[in-house]
Amino acid sequence: MALTRKVLPVFEGTGRVRFAGYDEAVSYKISGDPAALREGHTRLRGSFVTTAELAALAFRAGEGLLALDEGRTYRVVMLGHTTGGSEVFVELRV
Fold first, then answer.
1. Three-class SS state of 2
2. Parallel, antiparallel, or unpaired for β 63-68 and 44-49?
3. How many domains does the chain have?
4. Which residues span the domain enclosing 70?
5. With bands split at pLDDT 50, 70 and 90, how would you rate the model's confidence at 1?
6. 68 domain-assigned
7. Is residue 1 in some structural domain?
């Protein structure tokens, strides 16, 4: 019997990312509803797009804050990025 996995909705928008002295506008994509995120071990995965230089700096910083266009702010852990690419893959936490 095959197990089916629940498909999470994708939330996209524009926001601001802050890390190590930088505060830049970005576009983001999050798998799962950020409004449903609660304190604890729960996390959501997603990504944001910025310039290639800032993507590398964000990844090196390791952690930061992502303010969504709706006004909520989440802690983000930078999981990875492609060298020369402009997308940074993140994990969101409350």
1. coil
2. unpaired
3. 1
4. 10-93
5. low
6. yes
7. no
Entry pTM = 0.86
Comparing CA positions, the residue from 29, 19, 14 lying closest to residue 71 is: 14
Instruction: Evaluate whether residue 2 is within a structural domain.
Output: no
Q: Give the CATH number of the domain where residue 46 resides.
A: 2.40.10
Those residues whose C-beta lies under 8 Å from the C-beta of residue 55, and which sit 6 or more positions away, are: 81, 85, 86, 87, 88
Question: Comparing C-alpha atoms, which of 27, 1, 23, 34 is closest to residue 12?
Answer: 27
Q: Are 33 and 7 in contact (CB under 8 A)?
A: no
Q: What digits encode the pLDDT tens for the residues 20-73?
A: 999 999 999 999 988 888 887 778 999 999 999 999 999 999 999 999 998 899
pLDDT surpassing 90 at residue 2: no
Q: Would you say residue 37 lies in a domain?
A: yes
Of the candidates 70, 58, 63, the residue with the CA atom closest to the CA atom of residue 24: 58
Residue type, 32: G
Residue 38's pLDDT is 83
